[in-house]
Design goal:
There is one protein chain. Strands 3-6-7 form a three-stranded antiparallel sheet. Strands 10-11-12 form a three-stranded antiparallel sheet, with no helix packed on it. It is mainly alpha-helical. α4 (134-150) runs parallel beside α7 (212-231) and α6 (168-177) runs antiparallel to α7 (212-231). It has helices spanning 3-21, 51-58, 65-79, 134-150, 152-160, 168-177, 212-231, 235-256, 275-283, 289-304; strands at residues 22-25, 35-38, 48-50, 86-87, 93-94, 102-104, 109-110, 189-190, 209-210, 309-310, 313-315, 350-351. It starts with a helix and ends in a 5-residue tail after the last strand.
Length: 356
Amino acid sequence: MQLSELKITLLHIAIDVLDKCGLKLVPEGVLERAYRIHVPSGDMKYKSFWIRDAAMMAESGLIDIEELYDWIDFICRYGQNGSNVKNLQYGLSVPPWSIPDHINYDTGAVFYPGTYSSSDDQGNGRFGLFPPHDNAYYFIDMIYKFYIQAGVMTSQDVLSKPICGTSPLERAKKAFTAYNIDEMTDLCMSELPGFTVDWGFCDTIVKSGLLLFPSLLRMRAARQLSEMTEICGLDDDARFYHDKNKKLQQSIIQTFFTDEGWLLSATEQCRQPDVWGTVFAVWAGVLTGEKLNKTLRVLAEAYETGMVSTDGYIRHIPKGYDFSLKTSWEIAGTDHNTERHINEYQDGAYWATPTG
């Protein structure tokens, strides 16, 4: 099969999958407004709108701008926390302007993994005492995808138009302020015992110290905010986020890069090579020069020798770097396994999310 034919085949597969994952949602009591959304599975087994999964689908460029705006409006109107801390049961806390993990079809915002409850009982701390880091940055990425597809003129108007009193761009800026950010490096962090999940595809893993993957998302979000604030005429903001992007890039390299070429997932607990994070760092343009070449070499060798993949599915940690015979990560909340079609993909098994 020629490369052009392969691209067309993959495009049709992507369109078919996305078609099966789409639905129209009319929230109860909001009869005048129907939302087009996409959910994580074609069999509709996940009864909620997941922010990170939707943002990843938008990477395809196959979600039209009208639906992208539906997502943004839905999150702004029903998902994002307001200006006050929201205290939940069992010591859980939702900081101001946090973005939820997912939003139920009844518009209830759920800030923690592992539950569909949007009440004050959203878990007992098993998934951290704060919401996962990543959704704030996936929300910004979602808005950025709208801007890229809609163009400058449309975006200037839409991004500046208030939704429930605050525009999407202002909400994105507030989401970026986030929580649990190290002042010196500007990197995302997690402190024990009240840890913070770094991102959704490691939500059963307990990490501490400075965190790689959400810091990569934060760096990308700074770059995106710099561009969007500039097109909206906010030059001071644009310079601020430009400087943040540069600082985060330097901090990521200085903090996580190893002599082997891998990037570490965290600096304290779970201080281990992160395959997904290392690949994402390459894709996000963090590495340059000899560091980039070293990382590309170690990734190529690991892939060719079966250290990180099976049937195209990718492991979180390269074989040979497991913490012990019983666990891949240092602290994991799922059973250790080396198969690919199981729920325990987060601790030693394989998954398709980073395959592309």
